[in-house]
């Protein structure tokens, strides 16, 4: 029985991993479809598509899936529907501001799913514009390695960046996030590549202009549960919120 139980646990764990991987693949495929639809199917002439493909490859999405997504976006293969990008706004527990970016072929379904995810976890879906003013959209280039700040600052300025922040880009992996206006993202990323920086990620991201410190463990649990519920929805691409938690709170939550 012990061996059987162990194998059952392995199968359940594998099923969870496969489910998560499937969701990630689906989200990245939709991102490629929209990029190809908006700017054409040639990655060399479509920075948004090139970035989406790079992100998909980094996540392990098979080339066949990527090619299919491009074909759907350009119309050479039947698509699952007319996907559109929509931004939703709302509040989490304690009044935390939340922005959700979605790709959907059914606005009513997506709004209903989001409303349920918010309300079941102590938040509420708000009107357009209710929290958007608390965020600025920035281009972000994530670079890896032990970086010299003076050299990075010089390269960032030359490449058109506004600012940068040293941070761990992965667990125990040092690096930095370099910020620029969204329209300058391609120029900045290309310049940093020429300067031999190791690029981990390139994306457009919503950055909160200020953050709310979450110091209550129960609020932290509810907030993170709500973020998970939102990110788990099929139509949701990204979820951003303006909260901050220290290590002590996080250790109590997990």
Number of strands: 10
- What ranges have pLDDT less than 50 throughout 5 or more consecutive residues? 1-7
**So, CATH architecture of the domain at 2-74?**
Orthogonal Bundle
Q: Secondary-structure element order, as H and E?
A: HHHEEHEEHEEHEEHEEH
First CA to last CA: what distance?
31 Å
CATH class category of the domain at 2-74: Mainly Alpha
Largest sheet: 4 strands, antiparallel
How does this structure look, described?
The chain is an alpha+beta fold and 254 residues long. It has a domain at 2-74: Orthogonal Bundle (Arc Repressor Mutant, subunit A), CATH 1.10.10.200. Helix content is 46%, strand content 26%. The protein is built from eight helices and ten strands. The chain has a four-stranded antiparallel β-sheet with strand order 3-1-2-9. A hairpin with a 5-residue loop joins strand 1 (84-91) and strand 2. 32% of the residues are buried. Mean pLDDT is 86; it is low at 1-7.
């Amino acid at each position: 029985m012990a061996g059987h139980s162990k194998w059952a646990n392995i199968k359940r764990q594998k099923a969870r991993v496969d489910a998560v991987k499937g969701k990630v693949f689906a989200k990245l495929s939709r991102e490629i479809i929209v990029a190809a639809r908006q700017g054409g199917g040639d990655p060399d002439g479509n920075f948004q598509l090139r970035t989406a493909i790079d992100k998909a490859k980094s996540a392990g999405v098979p080339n066949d899936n990527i090619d299919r997504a491009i074909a759907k976006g350009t119309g050479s293969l039947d698509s699952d529907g007319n996907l559109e990008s929509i931004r939703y706004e709302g509040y989490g527990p304690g009044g935390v501001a939340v922005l959700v970016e979605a790709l959907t072929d059914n606005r009513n379904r997506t709004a209903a799913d989001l409303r349920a995810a918010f309300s079941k976890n102590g938040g509420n879906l708000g009107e357009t514009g209710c929290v958007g003013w608390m965020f600025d959209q920035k281009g972000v280039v994530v670079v890896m390695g032990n970086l010299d700040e003076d050299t990075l600052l010089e390269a960032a300025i030359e490449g058109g960046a506004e600012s940068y922040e040293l941070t761990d880009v992965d667990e125990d992996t040092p690096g930095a996030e370099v910020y620029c206006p969204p329209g300058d993202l391609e120029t900045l990323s290309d310049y940093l590549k020429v300067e031999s920086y190791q690029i981990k990620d390139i994306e457009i991201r919503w950055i909160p202009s200020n953050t709310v410190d979450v110091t209550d463990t129960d609020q932290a649990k509810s907030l993170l549960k709500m973020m998970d519920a939102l990110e788990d929805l099929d139509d949701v691409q990204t979820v951003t919120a303006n909260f901050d938690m220290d290590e002590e709170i996080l250790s109590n939550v997990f």
